[in-house]
Amino acid sequence: MEPGNHTQIPEFILLGLSEEAELQPLLFGLFLSMYLVTFTGNLLIILAITTDSHLHTPMYFFLSNLSFVDICFTSTTVPKMLMNIQMQNKVITYADCITQMYFFLHFMGLDNFLLTVMAYDRFVAICHPMHYMVIMNPRFCGLLLLTIWVLTFMDSLLNVLLVLRLSFCTELEISHFFCEFNQVIHLACSDTFLNDLVMYLTTGILGVIPFSGILFSYMKIVSSILKISSAGGKYKAFSTCGSHLSVVSLFYGTALGVYLSLAAFESSRATAIASVMYTVATPMLNPFIYSLRNKNIKQALRKLFR
C-alpha cells in the first residue's frame, strides 16, 4: 500500500463483530437492548441518589458519578455500531475515529479511578469510622473527583495527540466494532515506537497504581473485619463493600480476559468479541449489582417510582 499523511485519510472501516449478513439484525437487537438497559439502569441510579437526601454521602456521590461515566463509556462506542449496522455502512471518518478513541480512553480511565476512590472510601468507613465524615468531607471528595478527571484528560489527550503524528496507508480496516486504540496504532505506516512506549507507560502507571490501591484498601478492610468479634458485625461491615467488590471483580476480570484472549488468539475478531464484556456488559450489570445488593438503593428506587 502507498503510505500517506493522515490528512489524506478519508475514513477507516470498522469490520465489526461479524460480517455475516444474517447475523446483523440479531447483533442490532442485542446491542440496542443492552444499551437501553445500561442507559436506563444507570440513569435510575443517578436519579435515586440525587432525589433521596439519605443518600447524599461520599459513597453514593461516587456511585452516581460511576453511573454517569458508565453511560458515557457505553455511548462512546455502541451508538456508532448500531448506526453502522442499520445503515449497512462500516465507515468511520478519521476525525470521528480520533474523537472516539479520546473519549473511550478518557471514560475507561475514569471508571478505573472511580473504583479506586470508592475502595478508599470503604477503607476509611470501615477502618476509621469515627473520622469518616471528617476525612471524606465534601471538599475532599470534590477534589478527588477533579483530580481523576484531570489525570484521565491528560492521559487520553497525550495518547491521541501522539496518534495525530502518524501516517497511515489507504483502505484501513479495523477488526473491531469501534476504533480500538492499539489496533489503530498498528495500522500506521510510520514508526509507532513512541506511541507504544507512552501507551505501555501510561497503562502501567494509571492501571497498576489504582489496582494496587484497591488491593491495599481491601487488605486493610479484611484485616479490620476479622478483628470484629460478632458474626453480625462482620456481616454488616462486609455488606457495605460487597457491591463494590463485585463491580471491581467484574471490571478487572473482564479487562484481564480481553488481554488473555489477545495473547491466546491471533484473530483480532476474537479479541473484539471478548472486549464486549468490559465495554458493554460491565456497565450494564453495574446498576443491577448495586440495586440488588444494596437495600438503601432499593428503598430510594421504590420512592422514585412512587
Task: Tell me what you see in this structure.
It is a single chain. The longest helix has about 35 residues, at about 95-125. Helix content is about 75%, strand content about 5%. The protein is built from ten helices and five strands, in the order ββααβαααββααααα. Residues about 1-5 have low confidence and may be disordered. Helix 1 (about 25-50) crosses helix 10 (about 295-305) and helix 3 runs parallel beside helix 7 (about 195-225). The strands form two sheets. It has a three-stranded mixed sheet with strand order 3-2-5. It has a two-stranded antiparallel ribbon with strand order 1-4. It has about 300 residues and is mainly alpha-helical. The protein has helices spanning about 25-50, 60-85, 95-125, 130-135, 140-165, 180-185, 195-225, 230-265, 270-295, 295-305; strands at about 5, 10-15, 90-95, 165-170, 170-175. The radius of gyration is 21 Å and the shape is globular. The N and C termini lie far apart (about 60 Å).
Task: Give descriptors for this structure.
about 300 residues, mainly alpha, three-stranded mixed sheet, two-stranded antiparallel ribbon, 5 strands, about 5% strand, globular, disordered N terminus
Show the helix and strand layout:
Layout: E1 3-5, E2 11-14, H1 24-51, H2 58-87, E3 91-93, H3 94-127, H4 132-135, H5 138-164, E4 167-169, E5 172-174, H6 181-185, H7 193-226, H8 231-264, H9 268-293, H10 295-305
Parallel strand pairs: 2-5
Antiparallel strand pairs: 1-4, 2-3
Helix pairs in contact: 1-2, 1-9, 1-10, 2-3, 2-9, 3-5, 3-7, 3-8, 5-7, 7-8, 8-9, 9-10
